[in-house]
């Protein structure tokens, strides 16, 4: 093992420098306010959870979990997602009334990477969970809120794709017959490897009709007409109930004014999160090669914590959203008050007054500055309160 340099960080970890931090804070605040307006309440969960509970329920691959032992010998994990911890809290402490919970969060999650490849091992998510509501209205609300949240950040161009994992599973099992064969085919969908999907279908021992059904499945993308196209591919009614849910969802999103604009169907959509049970969705934007947000229905996850109830939600990846937004203009100006020792009190009083008025102010002793011109480049405005002794120092 080679010796580490003092400035090196663990694989996949990132530093957030001041300018990016301020941008992230601004975007996070904008999204948080939208979520609060929709009636969602923010909460926090511990960074560390038990491996046997949240770790096992999270659906994140075991090799991606950061594990450590506590003093009692229990295996702990750094939380790999936020849905499972919130499900734990909801099941144990909050689901005492027969009313849906609307919870929100913003937190860092941790997933180990074998090779970095631009994928961080620690990243921030902001999202919501609607727990205790099994209606399609809840799915529609989740999608509408996600669109609202992204729009509020100033993101103008993005596409939200909606699918149904239940439809994919029922359609595939009806044709392929076994879970193993279904898993092999859905892997191509998850990887967006449509060429590999087509080659795999051609090699299957199926009738030419069933092979064509599997190939036509890849065309199920677009607006409301996709539902009719999907119905034509079905036999024995398998998958029809999922399509009826999607049709109802489209009507709900039409009422929100979002169907066909920011939102489209993509019935080939699948997820690596195994706890999704119904409608699911993801968002792509700009030149970002990965989803900037994703979510869906997970009606069986709460059962792992002793409560059998429906739930849906989404998470936004802040790092990817910032990449899609690009450089955000309009940073608040910062003033710098340069002072010498004999005018220090005057400078402190002036700074306090400006801060009270909402102005960002930096106080700087002139003896700590070697280059006055550098200050004028760093700050938007420089005010000099310098006595005779200070003038000598400034030269």
From TrEMBL:
Pathway involvement of the protein, from the record: Amino-acid biosynthesis; L-histidine biosynthesis; L-histidine from 5-phospho-alpha-D-ribose 1-diphosphate: step 1/9
Signal sequence coordinates: none
Other facts: This function is generally fulfilled by the C-terminal part of HisG, which is missing in some bacteria such as this one.
GO CC entries: cytoplasm
Chain sites annotated for binding L-histidine: 81-83, 111, 125, 129, 275-276
Assembly and oligomerization: Heteromultimer composed of HisG and HisZ subunits.
Database matches in NCBIfam families: hisZ_biosyn_reg, PRK12292.2-4
Family: Belongs to the class-II aminoacyl-tRNA synthetase family. HisZ subfamily.
Keywords: Amino-acid biosynthesis, Cytoplasm, Glycosyltransferase, Histidine biosynthesis, Transferase
Pfam families, per the entry: HisZ-like, tRNA-synt_His
Main location: cytoplasm
Gene for this chain: hisZ
Residue ranges annotated for the Aminoacyl-transfer RNA synthetases class-II family profile domain, each copy included: 12-333
Gene3D superfamilies: 3.40.50.12590, Bira Bifunctional Protein, Domain 2
Role, per record: Required for the first step of histidine biosynthesis. May allow the feedback regulation of ATP phosphoribosyltransferase activity by histidine.
UniProt superkingdom: Bacteria
Molecular function (Gene Ontology), one example: histidine-tRNA ligase activity
Subcellular location: Cytoplasm
Biological process terms in GO annotation: histidyl-tRNA aminoacylation; L-histidine biosynthetic process
Full protein name: ATP phosphoribosyltransferase regulatory subunit
């Amino acid at each position: 093992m080679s010796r580490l340099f003092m400035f090196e960080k663990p694989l996949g970890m990132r530093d957030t420098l001041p300018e990016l931090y301020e941008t992230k804070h601004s975007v996070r605040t904008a999204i948080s306010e939208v979520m609060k307006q929709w009636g969602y309440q923010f909460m926090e969960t511990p960074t560390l959870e038990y491996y046997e509970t949240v770790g096992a329920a999270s659906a994140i691959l075991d090799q991606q979990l950061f594990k450590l032992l506590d003093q009692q010998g229990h295996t702990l994990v750094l939380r790999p997602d936020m849905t499972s911890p919130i499900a734990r809290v909801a099941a144990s402490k909050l689901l005492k009334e027969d009313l849906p919970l609307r919870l929100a969060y913003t937190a860092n999650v941790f997933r180990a990477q074998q090779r970095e490849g631009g994928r961080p091992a620690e990243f921030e998510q902001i999202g919501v969970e609607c727990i205790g509501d099994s209606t399609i209205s809840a799915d529609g609300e989740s999608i509408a809120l996600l669109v609202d949240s992204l729009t509020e950040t100033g993101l103008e161009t993005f596409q939200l794709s909606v699918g149904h994992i239940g439809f994919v599973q029922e359609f595939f099992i009806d044709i392929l017959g076994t879970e193993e064969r279904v898993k092999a085919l859905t892997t191509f969908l998850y990887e967006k490897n449509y060429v590999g999907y087509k080659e795999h279908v051609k090699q299957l021992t199926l009738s030419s009709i069933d092979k064509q059904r599997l190939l036509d499945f890849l065309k199920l993308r677009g607006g409301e007409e996709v539902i009719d196209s999907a119905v034509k591919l079905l036999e024995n009614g398998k998958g029809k109930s999922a399509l009826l849910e999607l049709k109802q969802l489209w009507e709900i999103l039409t009422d929100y004014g979002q169907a066909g604009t920011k939102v489209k169907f993509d019935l080939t959509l699948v997820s690596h999160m195994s706890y999704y049970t119904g409608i699911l969705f993801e968002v792509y934007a700009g030149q970002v090669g990965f989803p900037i947000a994703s979510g869906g229905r997970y009606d069986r996850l709460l059962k792992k914590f002793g409560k059998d109830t429906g739930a849906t939600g989404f998470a936004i990846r802040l790092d990817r959203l910032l990449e899609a937004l690009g450089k955000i203009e309009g940073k608040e100006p910062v003033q710098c008050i340069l002072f010498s020792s004999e005018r220090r009190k005057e400078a402190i009083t002036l700074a306090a007054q400006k801060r009270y008025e909402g102005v960002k102010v930096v106080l700087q002793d002139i003896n700590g500055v070697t280059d006055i011109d550098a200050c004028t480049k760093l700050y938007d405005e420089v005010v000099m309160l310098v006595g005779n002794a200070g003038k000598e120092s400034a030269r």
